[in-house]
Design brief:
This protein is α/β, with parallel strands linked by helices. The chain is built from 8 helices and 15 strands. Helices cover 27% and strands 27% of the residues. The strands form 3 sheets. Strands 3, 4, 5, 6, 7, 14 and 15 form a 7-stranded mixed β-sheet that branches. The protein has a 6-stranded parallel β-sheet with strand order 10-9-8-11-12-13, sandwiched between helices. The radius of gyration is 20 Å and the shape is globular. The two termini are 13 Å apart. GO terms for molecular function: mRNA 3'-UTR AU-rich region binding; NADPH binding; quinone reductase (NADPH) activity; zinc ion binding.
Length: 324
């Protein structure tokens, strides 16, 4: 019997119920995976609380995981039992096993662990599209990365630095500042102790940043806009502190003809060719040593409520996983 975590009614961490479920045989074009590690992400909190609407109730949270293929459905020829795979896909990852369309899977290189694979597909691919597609970071660019000690933040700092950028990160504590510096930040701002907008102006000598990557949301807005040079880009890709409130487009004009975007990963990997491009770039960056994956927290799947409490209270750094 497959075990899974389901949400029957949106709410707090107590809404996460660990229980047995029936899992049918994989259908046409599907693969069954025995999951070895599941990625923990803030988007899971959004669905649990109802900020993001699930298709229906009950639902199984989670979008990324890694494991081994144990069965394939009719029509699947490119995956076989025993293959090591990882994915980013729709809700359903908080489970010991699941069925998933084969075209959403990528094969894991031998030297990348299940644990690494489980945190790469959402966080890693997000960093890939943010730095290579949404705004192509190049040598000399000055970038601001909020939540620089988080799972996405640490990867983004490393990759942006490797691309030649001047990297500024914001964090909430001295301990997190050390992690951000180790990940390649040239400057780290502890936002609980100083005004990040004033520090950006000081660090940049009022030249500001080419791009701001903001996965925090409510508490960093509209300050983020004041950190961007004229015709620069505001990338709002998450809302860990709550959604960015509605604002008038004239705010972009007032801050220097800024551009703004609210991207999501699905729109950058909607074609399989895009998924493979991103995964290949990501795996290559790890193989070459450009990216180092920091998995600082691991929880048993049945203890997922504790994992959500830690995530929401900012007690985690780097990436976190659930072990089915």
């Amino acid at each position: 019997m497959t075990k899974a975590v389901r949400v029957h009614k949106v709410g707090g961490p107590e809404a996460l119920v660990y229980e047995a479920i029936d899992l049918p045989e994989p259908g046409t074009g599907e693969v069954r995976i025995r999951q070895h590690a599941v990625g923990l992400n803030f988007i899971d909190v959004y669905f649990r609380t109802g900020l993001y609407k699930a298709p229906g109730l009950p639902f199984i949270p989670g979008n990324e995981a890694a494991g081994e293929v144990v069965a394939v459905g009719p029509g699947v020829t490119n995956f076989h039992p025993g293959d090591r795979v990882a994915y980013y896909y729709n809700l359903g990852a908080y489970a010991t096993e699941r069925n998933i369309p084969a075209d959403k899977l990528v094969k894991l290189p031998d030297h990348i662990t299940y644990e690494q694979g489980a945190v790469l597909m959402l966080k890693g691919l997000t960093v890939w599209y943010l730095l290579h597609k949404t705004f192509r970071v190049e040598p000399g660019h000055r970038v601001l990365i909020h939540a620089a000690a988080g799972g996405i933040g640490l990867l983004a700092c490393q990759w942006a630095k490797a691309l030649g950028a001047n990297v500024i990160g914001t964090v909430g504590s001295k301990a997190k500042a050390e992690l951000a510096l180790q990940a390649g930040c040239d400057h780290v701002i502890i936002y609980t102790e100083e005004d990040f907008v004033a520090r950006i102006k000081q660090i940049s000598r009022n030249e500001l940043c080419d791009v701001v990557y903001d996965g925090v949301g409510k508490t960093t807005f509209p300050g983020s806009l004041s950190c961007i040079k004229p015709r620069g880009l505001f990338v709002s890709f998450g809302n860990a502190s709550g959604p960015v409130p509605p604002f008038a487009l004239t705010e972009l004009n007032n801050h220097g003809s800024l551009f703004a975007t609210r991207p999501k990963l699905n729109d950058y990997i909607s074609k399989r060719s895009e998924l493979i491009e991103g995964a290949d770039a990501l795996f290559s960056a790890i193989i070459e040593g450009t990216l180092h994956i920091q998995i600082n927290h691991a929880y048993a799947l049945k203890d997922v409520a504790k994992a959500h409490i830690d995530l929401e209270s900012r007690a985690t750094t780097g990436a976190s996983i659930l072990k089915p």
